Amino acid sequence: MTITLAIGVQAMARRNAIVRRLPAIEAIGSVSVICTDKTGTLTRNEMVVTVAQTVSGTFAIAGDGYAPEGAIKPAGDLGRLALAAALCNDARLHRKDGAWVVEGDPMEGALLAFAGKASGDQAAQRLDAIPFDSRHRFMAVLSEGESGRLIHVKGAPERVLRMCAGLDQAHWHNLADKLAKRGLRVLALAERSEQGDQIDPKALEGGLTFLGLVGLIDPPRPEAITAVAECRAAGIRVKMITGDHAGTAAAIGAQIGLANTNRVLTGADLDKLDDAQLALEVADVDIFARTSPEHKLRLVTALQAHGLSVAMTGDGVNDAPALKRADAGIAMGLKGSEAAKEAADLVLADDNFASIAAAVREGRTVYDNLKKVISWTLPTNAGESMVIVLALLLGLAMPVTAVQILWVNLITGITLGLALAFEPTETGTMARPPRARNAPILSGGLVWHVVLVATLFMAAVFGVFTYAIDKGYPLALAQTMAMNTLVVLEIFHLFFIRNIHSTSLTWAAARGTKFVWTVVITITTAQFAVTYIPPLQAVLGTIPVSLMDGLLIVAIGAAFFALIEIEKQIRLGLRI
Q1: What sections of 305-419 are H helices per DSSP?
Q2: Cβ(274)–Cβ(292) under 8 Å?
Q3: Phi, psi at residue 465, to the nearest 5°?
Q4: pLDDT tens, 102-129?
Q5: Based on the structure, what is the number of domains in the chain?
Q6: By the 8 A CB rule, do 3 and 418 touch?
Q7: Which of 351, 382, 398 is the last residue in one of the domains?
Q8: Residues belonging to the active site
Q9: Start-to-end C-alpha separation, the chain
Q10: Which of 107, 124, 126, 526 would give a disulfide with 145, using CB separation of 3.0 to 4.6 Å?
Q11: What is this structure's pTM?
Q12: What CA–CA distance (Å, rounded) separates 180 from 58?
């Protein structure tokens, strides 16, 4: 089982999902809800300012990437707006290998590119700053330049507009909503003259002069759209949690294919709901906007109250409690904080939602393979045990000697059982609904399979043994035939158990994998050796088996395979 999990770790690492704790592989495979950030995870995180809205009108901003080059139509004076975008900013733009790249937040890099298009380089000395925080939702910078000492503020429109004086609030809120509904991320910028050396937060309230709005586009990742569709087909709900405007979140949610995009709950809405009300609301809402890390923790708890297994993404220090509480905490490897990575079960090396979907697929595959290992090991060992126990209870000669049982367990347990750990993903893995959060691995169906296979093992081995004794064969030959019957049955059971969710009567199932055929050929060679090579015969007490008796043993194995396959087809409701 540990080897199976370790193989899963390697497979996930190849898909950019780094597992920090082995049990997380099983957890990610069972998730029924994925709560994901938007920017950089569902979207490309390559932002470009495409529109600016000031009291003078609407301006279209051309240009690609972070290059500070592009036309502005119609021509107009955006100098003050551009100055605010450039100075209220912690990012840096520079050329690398002939292309413009950003150091820092991509959104702030897009603002720098816009400032370069509007008014060129802006030089000023920073004196003080209030960093952006999800609680107050704005950033403020005090700087001194050619225009004197100015405080520039940028942030969420609904927050910045409240800080401005002499403004038609309803009009600008309406304009911000229109931009957001186009899928744009909207920021408001404002300024204030200042004489001191520090920013007084209280003086900002109602003391700012509004400069305008900028709309930035961050297109969805094409692979994220495919991954969301794959998750929905697998019965997994995808919920987007973002700090963006509700309109922007709804527009992006529709583009990536979320189920419910007509209704958005904001952080303010969540604050009005108690835990019981939130648990009722959360199941039918897939988009949460203007949220804080504290809201993530409440959402995880509310979803788990429905018995759902929840995966939660995060990158900030304050996301750690939600990541720990989630059934599968997923941190961002590129932009994530160390605290988030420490709290998470998985780390995405590329911050891409498609890697989460791939991790779910690998997690389901690992769980299937664990179940296959158990479903193969328990029945075969139970069958071997029942053969010995029944012989002792009835006072019969042992169909298989102790050293032969030891040989069978060594040669098959190490090889056949291990082969199942390397099984690839079954067809239809991502078309099945997620298993229940409290589903036991030793289910009623598995218990029935153990009883059925163990009984058939016992009947086949005793049948071959009795046949050999009735034919007048020596006891050693009868035991040799019984031992080989055990091995053949276990090989056929291996091919059966490789497809626990579908029929095994397909070419792909029969073709197997290189690892399966390697171990089957190894075991077959080993059995021929102990059956026909004299020195090994002396060790295991075996006698050569005739061709006809050998074919009989193989035929019994095929009949055993047919019986358990028919039972599976009936149980799964498949047409034979």
Answers
A1: 320-325, 338-343, 353-394, 402-419
A2: no
A3: -60, -45
A4: 998 899 999 999 999 998 767 899 999 9
A5: 3
A6: yes
A7: 351
A8: 37
A9: 32
A10: 124
A11: 0.80
A12: 15
Residue matched to tokens 């009623």: 444
Separation between Cα atoms, residue 115 and residue 109, nearest integer Å: 10
List residues bridging with 124 in a β-sheet.
145
Are both 291 and 410 inside the same structural domain?
no
Q: Are 374 and 448 in contact (CB under 8 A)?
A: no
CA separation (Å) from 218 to 10, 144, 204, 243? 32, 32, 30, 14
Residue position matching structure tokens 């003080």: 128
> In the block, which residue shows the tokens 């109602």?
206
**Listed residue (524, 512, 513, 526) closest to 557, CA to CA:** 524
- Give the domain range for residue 192: 48-217
Q: Name the token pair of 329.
A: 């905490």
Q: How confident is the model at residue 425 (pLDDT cuts 50, 70, 90)?
A: confident
The CATH number of the domain holding residue 70 is 3.40.1110.10
- Number of Cβ atoms within 10 Å of the Cβ of 243: 21
Distance set, CA 429 to CA 228, 331, 385 (Å):
15, 25, 34
Amino acid, single-letter form, for residue 182: R
- Considering only CA atoms, give the Rg of the chain: 33
What pLDDT is attached to residue 576? 40
Q: Do 450 and 490 belong together in one domain? A: yes
Backbone angles phi, psi at 144, to 5 degrees: -125, 125
Answer whether residue 5 is part of any domain: no
